[in-house]
Specification:
Chain lengths: 246, 219
């Protein structure tokens, strides 16, 4: 397996507040990395640094052999290669589901509209939303919107897909339909970085789990190492917050 | 009410109506142009120009049109610039309307959440692509009702033009009443012509609102 993404000594500060402190991470092609940690520990900020929504103060981000950390000019080009799905879906409310999905390939990649639409319809069918293609986002449930958001990112054929708590705003019965899609993406070998609080899902989907606390990677390992043999007290404490038999 | 009086005044009213509509709409177009420029200046924090734009909005939104017209019509000649009543009316209305339109456009732009830009950026769109395809259409949907309200407000404000002797509807009505005392007929015609001027705008506005807002809001 070849390395697709490498983060070296990444640090991120908001004024005086150090949010990410010397983060190192290597992700191989096809690998699924789950990131967990207490609220406010910097998980979202980390993903946002990776696709340049936040600038970084120190370190390097290397995507597919290319250093993308500080080059403002290639930032937009590189964002095409990194998909991101947010907690709040952020579909474009004035566009139909089909137009939401086809906007970026047509505008950014200047691809043929007919061809893109065929591809979009196939992807929508795959997530069970073909019948919604002409609807507007407001006419969809949260879980449906989130599946569209995943399709909208996928159609750009990103090398890495970043998912930031994509089920956190959903009603429990909708969480599953979204996670099923993510699980199927993992099975077909997509490279993903996933921030989630769904621990069972993390165990099922992850090749590697990292635990961030206080802006540092405190522990990292395979799901079984991580859940069954946590090494640090901080991770043990964190995992306890998800259990009810105290 | 005397039908003969009504019909004999009709041509004068039609003339005044056409003039009012012409000056009114030229003023509205000026207002929209100013409004867009000022709103962009404020929304995008353009250095130097932003405080000027804000001062303009405050100044013109908080002074009556009549006072603004007096400044242009009677004040400018004192520094050597004479303007015709028609130009004065259109420019005055445009300046007043520009401050209202600016606020409408700006509130639309401000109402589009930052997360919309971020999700568009994350898809690889450039700043100009995301502005044109994502921000502007949504801002316009949000602004439409208040833009339509401004247009109706500005058309009604044309009634102030009579103060600078522009032969608009109001001037014509006042003139005729002063001359012949047919108050009832003159007022009825006045109301009818204002309604003829405004009801189509109101209907068109509703259609436009439906069209632009339906997608996003469903109503
Ligand atoms: N734009 C910002 N300006 C200042 N501080 C921020 C900003 N965004 C996030 N933070 C701070 O950075 C820390 C990490 O935030 P975040 O990455 O959202 O955490 P998480 O996603 O793990 O809950 C928090 O303390 C938060 O208040
Ligand atoms: Mg977060």
């Amino acid at each position: 397996m070849s390395e697709i993404l490498s983060v070296k000594n990444l640090s991120k500060r908001f004024d005086d507040l150090t949010v990410l402190d010397n983060i190192n991470l290597s992700v191989n092609e096809g690998e699924v990395v789950v990131i967990v940690g207490p609220s406010g520990c910097g998980k979202s900020t980390f993903l946002r640094c990776l696709n340049g929504l936040e600038d970084i103060q120190d370190g390097e981000i290397i995507l597919d052999g290319e250093n993308i950390s500080h080059d403002k000019k290639t930032l937009q080009k590189n964002r095409e290669k990194i998909g991101m799905v947010f907690q709040s879906y952020d579909l474009f409310p004035h566009k139909t589901i089909l137009d939401n999905v086809t906007l970026a390939p047509i505008k950014v990649k200047k691809r043929n509209k007919k061809e893109v639409e065929q591809e979009a319809l196939a992807l929508l069918e795959r997530v069970g939303l073909l019948s919604k293609k002409d609807n507007y986002p407001r006419q969809l449930s949260g879980g449906q919107k989130q599946r569209v958001a995943i399709v909208r990112a996928l159609i750009m054929q990103p090398k890495v897909l970043l998912l930031d708590e994509i089920t956190a705003a959903l009603d429990p019965e909708m969480v599953h339909e979204v996670l099923d899609v993510v699980l199927s993406l993992a099975k077909e070998g997509r490279t993903m970085l996933i921030v989630t609080h769904e621990m069972q899902f993390a165990r099922a989907v992850a090749d590697k789990i990292i635990f961030i606390d206080g802006g540092k990677i405190v522990e990292e390992g395979t799901p079984s190492e991580f859940f069954d043999n946590p090494k640090t007290d901080r991770l043990k404490k964190f995992l306890q917050t998800f259990s009810y038999n105290k | 009410m005397d039908p003969n009086v009504l019909s004999s005044y009709l041509p004068l009213y039609v003339q005044a109506f056409l003039l009012t509509v012409k000056i009114g709409w030229i003023g509205i177009i000026i207002a929209i142009l100013i409004g867009v420029i000022v709103a962009f200046t404020i929304h995008f924090n353009v250095p130097v120009l932003k405080p000027i734009a804000k001062a303009y909005v405050e100044l013109f939104r908080n002074t009556p049109l009549l006072v603004q017209l007096f400044f242009i019509y009677f004040g400018l000649p004192k520094i050597g610039i004479t303007v015709s009543a028609e130009v004065c009316g259109a420019v005055g209305l445009g300046l007043l309307g520009g401050s209202y339109m600016a606020e409408s456009f700006r509130s639309g732009l401000d109402a589009v959440p930052v997360s919309q830009s971020e999700s568009a950026l994350a898809l690889g769109l450039s700043q100009s692509q995301l502005f044109g395809s994502v921000i502007l259409p949504q801002a316009f949907s949000i602004s439409t009702p208040s833009i339509v309200a401004n247009v109706i407000f500005l058309l009604k404000e044309t009634s102030v033009f009579s103060a600078i002797s522009l032969m608009d509807l109001m001037f014509t009505a006042k003139d005729l009443i002063g001359l012949y005392y047919n108050t009832t007929e003159c007022l009825v015609l006045l109301v009818v012509f204002y309604i003829v001027m405004l009801v189509p705008v109101s209907i068109l506005g509703t259609v436009l609102e439906k069209k632009t807002r339906y997608k996003m809001f469903g109503v």
